[in-house]
Amino acid sequence: MTATVALPPIAILGAGSMGGAILHGLVRSGVAGGVTVTNRTSAKAAALADLEGVRSIALEEQPSGNVDAAAAAEIVLVGVKPAMVPDLLREIAPVLRPGTIVVSLAAGVTLATFESLLGDDVAVIRSMPNTPSLVGKGVTGLAAGTRAGADAVAVVRRLFETVGIVVEVPEAQIDALSTISGSGPAYFFLVVEEFTKAAVGRGFSVEDARLMAEYTFIGSAALLAASDDDPAELRRRVTSPKGTTERAVAVLQEARLDETFTAATAAALARAKELAAGA
């Protein structure tokens, strides 16, 4: 059996919900060679301090924490709010060692922005994880910058594979990817919400309605994951000719769900472009 190769030292600057999810994935995987994380407050830092192999810094106690963490890392994940990214990059740029890989977790901040503020010997990769990363079932899109070679992409891919699967795309597709995997969990939760309401409308208690709706979707997702067949084939197997499911599916198809989802993702993409333009 081949031994697991540890990742190089990692810094996560701004270990909020997404940075924290990635941190927990790294700890669970056992491939992290050492991780330093920063948060603004002592309370947030303390919540991560007991994780194995993790050094957690509170910036209110150690104002140089971002610089200290970046200087010691070979991979730096930038997880602060998008508006804070330029100032943070200017702060850490002087201490980044040649060959450091900087990974953006910030929505809407372009590779060009990162590369313009960092040295020519720093590789930049833009990432777009989603919230199921919290339970190790995430989808992360990766787009490599002009200075990120195959080796840099491979090591960052390994990092994100600790919290799910990875899809490599050109940067031009990152916003489109965000409308599918990034926003997708919200679409799913909305459908579960409405399905639950339908069950309540059929006379079930809220508790039973939630149980039936949620576990129907959880079980269906598990069946899909375990099957080699595509969703359309699995749907056909549930849909007996002239049966109750066929009648229900016909109503859903008449509602033009295909057009609705296309319009929804188009609206999300338009908003992503507005945010990238500072609107």
From TrEMBL:
Domain Pyrroline-5-carboxylate reductase catalytic N-terminal intervals:
10-108
Which locations, inside or outside the cell, does it occupy? Cytoplasm
What keywords does the record list, in alphabetical order? Answer: Amino-acid biosynthesis, Cytoplasm, NADP, Oxidoreductase, Proline biosynthesis
Against InterPro entries, the record matches this protein to: 6-PGluconate_DH-like_C_sf, NAD(P)-bd_dom_sf, P5C_Rdtase_cat_N, P5CR-like_CS, P5CR_dimer, Pyrroline-COOH_reductase
Write out the GO MF terms.
pyrroline-5-carboxylate reductase activity
Reaction(s) catalysed by this chain's protein:
L-proline + NADP(+) = (S)-1-pyrroline-5-carboxylate + NADPH + 2 H(+); L-proline + NAD(+) = (S)-1-pyrroline-5-carboxylate + NADH + 2 H(+)
E.C. code? 1.5.1.2
Its annotated pathway? Answer: Amino-acid biosynthesis; L-proline biosynthesis; L-proline from L-glutamate 5-semialdehyde: step 1/1
As for family, the record states: Belongs to the pyrroline-5-carboxylate reductase family.
Q: What does this protein do?
A: Catalyzes the reduction of 1-pyrroline-5-carboxylate (PCA) to L-proline.
| UniProt name for this protein | Pyrroline-5-carboxylate reductase
* Gene that produces this protein: proC
